[in-house]
Amino acid sequence: MSGSITEPSSRQKTVAGTLVILYAIITILPLVWIMMTGFKTGPDSISYPPKVFFQPSLEGYVNLFTSRTRATPEQLATLPAPANFADELARDRGMIITGPSKFGERFLNSVIIGFGSTFLSIFLGTLAAYAFSRFKIPLKDDLLFFILSTRMMPPIAVAIPIFLMYRSLGLSDTHLGMILLYTAVNISLAVWLLKGFIDEIPREYEEAALIDGYSRFQAFVKVVLPQAATGIASTAIFCLIFAWNEYAFAVLLTSGTAQTAPPFIPTIIGVGGKDWPAVAAGATIFLLPIMIFTILLRKHLLRGITFGAVRK
Amino acid sequence: MTDTIPASRPIRRRIRALSDRSIAWLFVAPTIFLLLAVNIFPLIWTIRLSFTDFRANRPNREVEWVGLENYRRILTDPDIWNTMQVTAHFLVWTIALQVLIGFTLAWLINRKFRGNDLWTTLIVLPMMLSPAVVGNFWTFFYQPQIGLFNYVVSFFSGVDPSSFTMIGSVTLAPWAIIIVDTWMWSPFVMLICLAGLRSIPDYIYEAAEIDRASKWRQFWTITVPMVLPFLMLAVLFRGIENFKMFDLVVQLTGGGPGSTTELASINLKREAFEKWRTGYSSAFAVILFVTVFGLASIYVKALNKVKDR
Fold first, then answer.
1. What is the value of pTM for the model shown?
2. Average pLDDT, stretch A170-186?
3. Domains: count for chain A
4. Which of A159, A293, B36, B218 lies at a 20 to 30 A Cα distance from B193?
């Protein structure tokens, strides 16, 4: 339909395309730079002018996963041959690897708390969303608004009593405490998004199943859940991304055992100053999964970030 | 699932026999219970604490009931007014810039050039990432001399890259946080505006074209009013989020230098978890919550009016 009067002209398209691509490149540059810095050596990362081309090195990643001490050349000479490339790399810098760093643990905490809270919010959220979508519930709109309004409180404001509550219940700095907390924060998103998805499934499917002798519960499990699978999956990813990125509660309520990666990564320091390649390596490992999820989610992105208010 | 779990007969029959009403309550109750326990109970506790002089770091000290004293002190505290001004400055500028950039991008993408989906997805990436981790890395970009940001600015303007520090200077720090927030969240406004632009049916423009309305007139009488409800929704979301803003700015500036970037949440954190004035900060938390809730309710009313028009 090139004859349509509302179709932009090809010159318009070229100009618009060029501007958007230019913006995209500028906006992506900081992210590319983080990934590049992860493969730089310490001196390369802070050189002037900033280095675009450099000899790639795994030093940042080695530093991220290990803790090291400085050793004199004499000490190094007495050691047996390096066991692996990481050892070798550290010794080239006059260091000995003394053990693993805390990054692995913190990353694992992020995984456990992220997946735990996502599972729980999806489980509870699907049940509630189904009920809100299909049944008459007194004060339904008020309840739904109440669920949404819990999202308006600044996390720090809620953190004061939660800090006190967790201290007396022994939930401070535990995985369970963080999972429950993130579930409570995420459940508003889960209920609102999933209600939207379930609203879109025609009621006739369940009614047919009910006539066929299914109970209401069976109809929910066997008819509605499979139909809602895509919606449930994308809601789950949104919950996971929130829990993965959350910082305010994590930094106030965890310090060791259950600390997640976001409060930990900024505290990575090297010997004599900030070890930017190690920070960049940690950031890359931490951010990359989310970038991949974002690309997978692109069709549902709008819906997720607006709590289902805008559907394409 | 009922096939795979060998439930005993009576239980199965009981599940089968559940009425719709009991299923409804069974399904909703856990969610409501969790929210009551982790959201409403703490909120009530905060309100209670706000009338006391409780200090969380001295739990054994006797707590005194001080009535409205905390509220009176907050409303007369120059620090709090400074915090509110910093927050307002941050809110106004981030929203203005994000609306401008977001709408422009959406409008350009809606020219439907080839490959626009791919570029849209790339532009969206920053807003999905952890603000704390990304904010921390921006302190590296903002370093004088070696920082990427300073280098790019000096490359285009000729200013010496070591002559300014974005996060160390009183005049530049408020802009340093606005720049990063705008970088992260303009795509959010863009996505919502894009949905608005795509919801305008072609025939409206065709009719305007037949009436010989100029492109400029079409833009102001069709495009803008039709996108406005979407844009207002985007502003609502950004407003609430940035009013609560904590992680990104804590990592970038920590509220400094001095208290030039001390947003409400950062001030609250200092009062509550560094000075341990629990009662006082609870009162501030209540004030903040009432403010967000009140402003959001008024705004939603306005939004609904625009939608119905």
1. 0.89
2. 92
3. 1
4. A293
Q: Is residue A303 part of a domain?
A: no
User: Cα separation of A190 and A196, whole Å?
Assistant: 10
Contact B278 A247 (CB under 8 A): no
**Measured between alpha carbons, how far is A33 from A244 in angstroms, rounded to an integer?**
22
The Cα–Cα gap between B161 and B163 comes to: 6
Helices (H) and strands (E) in chain B, counts: 15, 0
Examine the predicted complex and report whether its ipTM is higher than 0.85. yes
Least confident of A127-136, A269-278, B42-51: A269-278
Percent of chain A with pLDDT over 70: 97
User: Is A160–B148 a contact, with Cβ atoms under 8 angstroms apart?
Assistant: no
Q: Please indicate, yes or no, if residue B235 is contained in any of the structural domains.
A: yes
* CB atoms closer than 10 angstroms to residue A152: 17
Q: State the CATH number of the domain containing residue A259.
A: 1.10.3720.10
Cα A61–Cα A67–Cα A69 angle in degrees, nearest 5? 120
How many residue contacts between A and B have a Cβ separation below 8 Å?
298
Residues B102 and B25 in one domain: no
Q: Is the peptide bond before A73 cis (omega within 30 degrees of 0)?
A: no
Alpha-carbon gap: A12 to the closest alpha carbon of chain B (Å): 7
User: Please, which residues 182-211 of chain A have a Cβ atom closer than 8 Å to chain B?
Assistant: 183-184, 187-188, 191
At residue A164, the pLDDT reads 86
